[in-house]
């Protein structure tokens, strides 16, 4: 059985890992330069900065087994059990940045980054029910395809597939603009180093040094969906200055050494499909990702498991 997975974020990687363990021939393609999707980490000088997902929680046994494995191997640790107050649920972080968890999942998989998929169509013969088209002219033959991209991108990929979708599957996404800033001294973010929705314009502020991720002071500021939408088309220099101004309270007088801006066009799905994945009639096309059962790291993980199970049993 040949399966192609579009997207090498946590959902696609988990699906690929499970299928390979079931002796399925799997290729993953991703347009990014590295695996991870929103498990994203950037090095800026001596600083390590998570700029996508800032932490993750655990509610289900399936994800707990994965997290326990990461903790046992020193790849993840508990950051806190809440921010303003404790609610008892651990917030985990990756000890070397969130992207390190994606790289761990990708070990041994055939992942082809910097590979832009632009279409899925029926194959030309019975031996290849599906073909994935790549922008450089490459064609991947497959018995089944798992698509883990945001749903608008999935719809575009499948436009010529002949697959019929429920209209309720298609959802829009909130946008997020992130500021990544290195500082000359520790930030003024209170313990444990994270603040959720402190103002209408800010969705989350994280101290990467307090998280134990960065050796030197560095913060991540996620603008709120409304602010991000309103300023999406601003010039990068304008955004950088505006985000530094938004973050002023949390700088505590620290000077910004370097600041970068990251845009997440499909940051958070506005509506969720209630099941962990969607299986097309015939069972050989599966949609999965963070729009299924919740836009969280755990939900993406479990969606990947469900997608693999749909193909391998």
Helical segment tally?
A: 8
Q: Which outline best applies?
A: globular
Structural class: alpha+beta
Strand content: 35-45%
Strand elements, count: 18
- Strand order within the widest sheet? 7-2-1-11-18-17
Oligomer: single chain
Description:
The protein is α+β, with helices and mostly antiparallel strands. It contains 8 helices and 18 strands. It has helices at 10-21, 61-72, 99-106, 151-157, 225-231, 236-246, 248-251, 297-312; strands at 2-6, 25-29, 41-44, 47-50, 76-82, 86-94, 111-112, 117-125, 128-134, 139-142, 144-147, 173-183, 194-199, 202-207, 218-223, 256-269, 277-279, 285-288. A hairpin with a 2-residue loop joins β13 (194-199) and β14 (202-207). α1 runs parallel beside α8 (297-312).
What layout of secondary structure does this protein have?
Elements: E1 2-6, H1 10-21, E2 25-29, E3 41-44, E4 47-50, H2 61-72, E5 76-82, E6 86-94, H3 99-106, E7 111-112, E8 117-125, E9 128-134, E10 139-142, E11 144-147, H4 151-157, E12 173-183, E13 194-199, E14 202-207, E15 218-223, H5 225-231, H6 236-246, H7 248-251, E16 256-269, E17 277-279, E18 285-288, H8 297-312
Parallel strand pairs: 1-2, 1-11, 2-7, 11-18
Antiparallel strand pairs: 3-4, 5-6, 8-9, 9-10, 12-15, 12-16, 13-14, 14-15, 17-18
Helix pairs in contact: 1-8
């Amino acid at each position: 059985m040949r399966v192609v997975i579009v997207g090498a974020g946590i959902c696609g990687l988990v699906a690929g890992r499970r299928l390979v363990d079931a002796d399925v021939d799997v290729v993953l393609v991703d347009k990014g330069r590295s695996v991870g999707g929103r498990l994203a980490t950037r090095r800026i000088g001596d600083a390590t900065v998570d700029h996508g997902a800032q932490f993750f929680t655990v509610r289900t046994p399936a994800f707990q087994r994965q997290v326990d494995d990461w903790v046992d191997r020193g790849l993840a640790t508990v950051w806190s059990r809440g921010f303003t107050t404790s609610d008892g649920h651990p917030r985990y972080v990756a000890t070397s940045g969130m992207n390190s968890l994606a790289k761990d999942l990708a070990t041994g998989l055939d992942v082809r980054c910097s590979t832009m998929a632009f279409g899925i169509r029926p194959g030309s013969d019975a031996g290849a029910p599906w073909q994935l088209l790549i922008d450089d002219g490459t064609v991947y033959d497959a018995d089944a395809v798992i698509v883990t991209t945001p749903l608008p991108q999935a719809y575009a990929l499948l436009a010529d597939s002949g697959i019929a979708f429920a209209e309720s599957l298609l959802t829009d996404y909130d946008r997020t603009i992130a500021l990544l800033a290195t500082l000359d001294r520790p930030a003024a973010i209170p313990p444990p180093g994270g603040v959720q929705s402190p103002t209408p314009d800010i969705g989350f502020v994280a101290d990467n040094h307090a998280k134990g991720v960065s050796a030197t002071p560095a913060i991540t500021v996620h603008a709120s969906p409304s602010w991000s939408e309103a300023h999406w088309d601003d010039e990068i220099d304008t955004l950088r200055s505006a985000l530094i101004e938004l973050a002023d309270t949390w700088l505590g007088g620290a000077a910004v050494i370097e600041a970068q801006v990251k845009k997440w066009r499909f940051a958070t799905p506005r509506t969720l499909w209630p099941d962990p994945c969607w299986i097309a009639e015939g069972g050989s096309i599966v949609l999965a990702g963070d729009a299924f059962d919740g836009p969280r790291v755990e939900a993406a993980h479990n969606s990947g498991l469900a997608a693999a199970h749909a193909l391998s049993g």
